[in-house]
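User: My advisor asked me to double-check a structure prediction for non-specific serine/threonine protein kinase before group meeting. I don't want to rely on an old file, so could you generate it fresh from this sequence?
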Amino acid sequence: MGNCCATPGTPSQNNRKNKKKSNPFSGDYPVTNGDGGGNNTWVLKEPTGRDITAHYDLGRELGRGEFGVTYLCTELSTGDKFACKSISKKKLKTAVDIEDVRREVEIMKHLRNHPNIVTLKDSYEDDNAVHIVMELCEGGELFDRIVARGHYTERAAAAVMRTIVEVVQSCHKHGVMHRDLKPENFLFANKKETSPLKAIDFGLSMFFKPGERFNEIVGSPYYMAPEVLKRNYGPEVDVWSAGVILYILLCGVPPFWAETEQGVAQAIIRSVIDFKRDPWPRVSDNAKDLVKKMLDPDPKQRLTAQEVLEHPWIQNAKKAPNVPLGETVRARLKQFSVMNKLKKRALGVVL
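Assistant: Sure, here is a fresh prediction for non-specific serine/threonine protein kinase from the sequence you gave:
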């Protein structure tokens, strides 16, 4: 659901000598004992604590989404900076909403030791909100970094894809299906050229067991696998989504595109991949072979994450062509990134 941090303010806290920053949720969402005035349901299984203000100082707002606000926060004991996502409990109107937040935190705990997955630091819950403190990623979005670099090659795309698929492999190894892989959900940790790329959003992720099937249609239209639209899917959908990202990395546009979401869905079901437009004639056969195998419409025939990592194009990523893919690809990536940002702003979801 995002990344954020807010300040709780119970009466006992307000009487302390060191005055804390007020809780942005407390005035609007009073807690009552079952008369409908608030939400005193406990969301998290094992929060770090209740009083986030005893450990973190809140700074500026970083973003705002459907369920809450993301803040820059500073750990009082170290001075280290983090992102904190504060989710208003009043906006968690159903048992499904509550379970989604609970599961997101549990999944982040499950995956917290991977170098390319944003690290969960702490979680707090007071009467009015859940506060998820996590690693702050200040290096910007994937496509923005590619556009800014200027020199963009197939070799660079291979390095990015290796990282993304390593994240998928780790998720699947731990019984987690991401379900919403897309470029916007990967940020660089910092602005250094050597900064690691981090997967940041697990709001739609699910735990799964071998052979378990799912039927809920979730995710972002361009990146949905055909079996999601058919309501019968498993973790193979993450490899499909990574394949869509790879296609975009190599040519700057999605493989399945239309003016409407219904048209996009129809294109996904048809699963016809265009390798004729520029720059595909200059892209290596190995790269095209991997795209085809990741975008196989039959999930049983589609490569697993491990098989993608064993593919010659990934195995020999450092030897992939280092010739620029062309200004057209960079321009398309920039346009695609801008379009996504505008769409988010239109929906009021800028996290």
